[in-house]
Amino acid sequence: MSTSWDALGVTDPGRVRGNNEDAFAIDLEAGLLVLADGMGGYNAGEVASQMLVTFLRDELGGWLRQAQAAPAEAVSQAIDICVDNANRAIYDTAENNPRMAGMGTTLVVAVARPDGLWVGHIGDSRAYRWRAGRLSQITRDHSLLQEQLDAGLITPAQAASALHKNLVTRAVGVEPRTELELHFHSWQPDDLLLLCSDGLSDMLPDADIAALCQRHTALEELGQALVDKANAQGGRDNITVVLGRPARAVSDSAPAQRPWWGIGRR
CATH number of the domain at 2-10+20-248, out of 2.60.40.10, 3.60.40.10, 3.40.980.10, 3.40.1180.10? Predict the structure, then answer.
């Protein structure tokens, strides 16, 4: 069994920045969506984010396409291993190139399976679920701001105007190892998945995102409307949105060409 996807990605540099350090990848056959928001000088953020989405599209996407019948534990392990391998590749590249020292990237990754959806993230790029007229954030930012909110040191109103909202506590590529937060979510045929960089979530409150989800049913229209609204609100950062509807389970005519355990750490 595999899961049929309808998916779309939109990225825009915004109104302030001259370059775009966001990147995304979509593999419909694998049921894979990836979004990354890079950081680092000399355009190294662009290098880190593009390395990450390309690595996961090739390595994780390739594994998923050949492992349609893999059990949930194996899928979870494969996602974790591929992210760990990508982290090491980005870290090693930065270590060996002084112009890229300190580069890194956030990550949000989704993998659709017939029985539900795996969502993993590192940093403050987010995943939302739109279900029956309600928007829910299904990731929790790895950021200094979120830690202060959790500790009760600041209020949500104070957080909205905080100056340090982009300081993340986890990233891909800045240390030899990183920690992926990965959860499994139930999924309904009419649900909508929304992945975004903080260029969207910093510009638009959840109520505005929900209003646009309510207004636009076509993915193309919704993706562009979200980017346009974020730009209208100031567009202070790169804006990337990936939308997906894992619609239904469909039967495969051909068996997997390799066993599900065919992946390993580097």
Answer: 3.60.40.10
